[in-house]
Fold:
Amino acid sequence: MVFDANAFTSFVSNIDKRIPLPDFASRLRELDLPVSNSWSKTVAALIEMAEDPKITGDTIDSLNNVVSWLSEYFRYSAKAVFVYDLPVSSFGGLENLAAEFRKNLKHTGVLRDHPYKFPALMDRVELEGFNGRTILRKVFRQSGSLSFVFSSVREFQIKETIAISRADAQAVGKLDGYSKVVGFRSALHEQIDVVRFRWSGTAAAFQPTIEMILDVTKPGGSMLNSNEILIRSREYRSIITGSLLRYNRAFVMPAELNFFPVIQKIYNSREGNVCELGFVTMIGNSMKTEKMKRNSADLRTETWHAGAMVAIASAPTPDTIDIYKLNVSWRIAMSDDEPVLSIPGSYRALSTSSIDHAIVLGCTGRSSFDFTYGRLMTFARMP
Structure:
């Protein structure tokens, strides 16, 4: 296959808006590709290599590896996960359902005319033409599953603090006496989401599922809040339902898998490193949040937390804690990733006993995401 330098340029042109430079630089060093301390110099060096008329086969292989890494990074980095167990027998099997979903997407308002091949991203001007739209980018078939990759372009309000100079104050009288102001601006952001149909697996009692793996990033490096995640999940739930109802009018999207029970199971398991807890004491009725400075440290063995657990259990009036939020991290062999699984409950979850999604952070590729997702589902399926 002839190497397409123009396509490669589109793949790396706008990634500075989505990927921390240290993550990208780490991957480039592994491939013996040039790295600089700035995005512009790093990207310029890569494009120069791609456009070299004397480019070698080894260099082409390295640049293609960069593209493959970008594809995985966008699909698996910073995602909210919703899981739907599906009784597929009455709908002709999940593999067939996935094919029907693909065929009927055109009837749900989903576009297919992204200006670039995946994993390229649009620039600011191009985003304006797709504001509020969802675009099918690519379909990946893997053993026992079919993954649909989408771009969703959405507008966000970004809060910024603006320093006020003396010249600013003189030019605009209302600013006189102020050293800074807080302003809001609108910014468009392209999120990469995945809808995955899985109809087979390695577990003896594998449960076929539809999974929504939704991008939780926002402009400026912040993350979606719980309400924004809920809105995004409803958008994709509507797309899935709208498409599959055209195939079978009896189709009903099931409720999300409840991850609330996973919290206590992980805490009791001693697995991984619990790096954050939100809980309430049952008798004292006090709410507390404990967080380690490093994700690789385990709160369960931290002196103050472990001592407090012993103390309240042996107090004259013994007490216990109810946990409603947990973050746990792992170190993975043969990987620099340190993924964090978050079960993002609030105090209200203690009364509803329900959390409809989990968040997976810290993954730069498929292997670390699959590991973390696998641990989540192992605990979710435990009796």
